[in-house]
Amino acid sequence: MNCKKRLILILAMLTAATMMFTGCKKNDTQSSKPEASSQVQSEVSSEKPESKTQPQQTPGIVEESEKADFSYLDDAVFIGDSVSLKLKNYVTAKRKSDSGFFGKAQFLTAGSMGSGNALKPLNEKSIHPTYKGTKALLEDSVAAMKAKKVYIMLGMNDITIYGPDGAVENMHKLIDKIKQKSPDAKFFVQSATPMVEQAQRTHLNNRNVKKYDDNLKKMCEEKGYYFVDVASVFRDDKGNLPVEYCSDPNDMGIHFTDKACEAWIDYILTHTVK
After folding, report:
1. Cβ-based neighbour number of residue 262 at 10 Å
2. How many domains does the chain have?
3. Residue 134: which CATH number?
4. Residue 88 domain-assigned?
5. Does 94 fall in a domain?
6. 33 in a domain, yes or no?
7. Do 128 and 137 contact (CB within 8 A), yes or no?
8. Residue 25 has what pLDDT?
9. How far is CA 217 from CA 90, 97, 119, 173, 231, in A?
10. Among 139, 184, 190, 199, which is least packed, fewest CB within 10 Å?
11. DSSP conformation class of 164
């Protein structure tokens, strides 16, 4: 082979080798890009989005919430005097056609009951509500029910005897007794509701009821209970119970109509604690 042909052959081999090297480098670069992208995607997909949870309600006044189903009250008990007795009777009547009305909530109510006489010893003449046909102390009945939500509204039968301050002190003592036997229960202290204007008396009047409620709210904040301001629905612009909510405006002036019970239930279900 002469020198000219040998030179041409060498140049051709060099050109081919250069093309092969360039192609390999290009392929290596291209294959590395998807790999890097895949790694980034893997890192991104492994990151979990932050969970957005509703802040838990702290003790004190219960703020407005989304309306809960009746099932929210399945583990609740409502303690009260003749005002709450009306709620019990209203719910009982509704359950005749709707067994799920107001959930499985139970009641411990008695006319003339107050936190003061609920603290007194149990006897034949004492004012204590019955549970399953037997009169018992509130703390024992609540424990037997295994209630996890305790709604309590008392005060109308205490203010005249003990004054707003003494009535609140009795409420605290009563809740403490119930809590000792039901330590896992949440306590919802409901404000006492106002009276119609013409039914007010020297000691039992809307001024003292409002003072009692304000002191209840303060007690709840200090002791770690929830305060459900039901009374806010039932005060007109003068602080009185509107006549359309009162079943005995010309007598005691404190008891409720069906319309009032509907407003009461709506307030409870739109002021819940998760």
Report:
1. 14
2. 1
3. 3.40.50.1110
4. yes
5. yes
6. no
7. yes
8. 44
9. 27, 37, 21, 15, 12
10. 184
11. H
Mean pLDDT rounded to a whole number for the chain = 87
135-164: pLDDT as tens digits: 999 999 999 999 999 999 999 999 999 999
**Helix and strand element counts for the chain (H, E):** 7, 8
Which spans in 110-254 are helix H?
115-118, 138-145, 159-181, 206-223
Residue 110 maps to a domain: yes
> pLDDT tens across 221-274, in order?
999 999 999 999 999 999 999 999 999 999 999 999 999 999 999 999 999 998
Q: Which domain range does residue 81 map to?
A: 60-269
Question: Does residue 131 carry a pLDDT above 90?
Answer: yes
> Which of these, 214, 177, 206, lies nearest to 61 by C-alpha position?
214
How many Å apart are CA 68 and CA 37, to the nearest integer? 47
Q: What would the two tokens of residue 58 be?
A: 């702290």
- Rg over alpha carbons for the chain, rounded to the nearest Å, is 36
User: Above 90 in pLDDT, residue 165?
Assistant: yes
